[in-house]
Amino acid sequence: MSTTLTVRLTGDLSEFANSNIGENGSFDNMSEYVRSLIREDKAKIELKAFERLKAELELAFSASDDTYVKITPSAIFDRN
What we know:
The protein is mainly alpha-helical. The chain is 61% helix and 0% strand.
């Protein structure tokens, strides 16, 4: 699947983006730059989700055994 988009940048944003492209920049073209930004944003969101899950698991594993409630398989079936 491919998505085409048109973005208009003016002023400072245009200058900043263009300074990252070409001989003096890190990217060969604007498409490469935008793909990199999207990848970075995706990675940041995935890292936040992982950190939330990690925190929940650390909390669960640090709980003492007496905080757990015993439940039988039949109780699970009855609940569902």
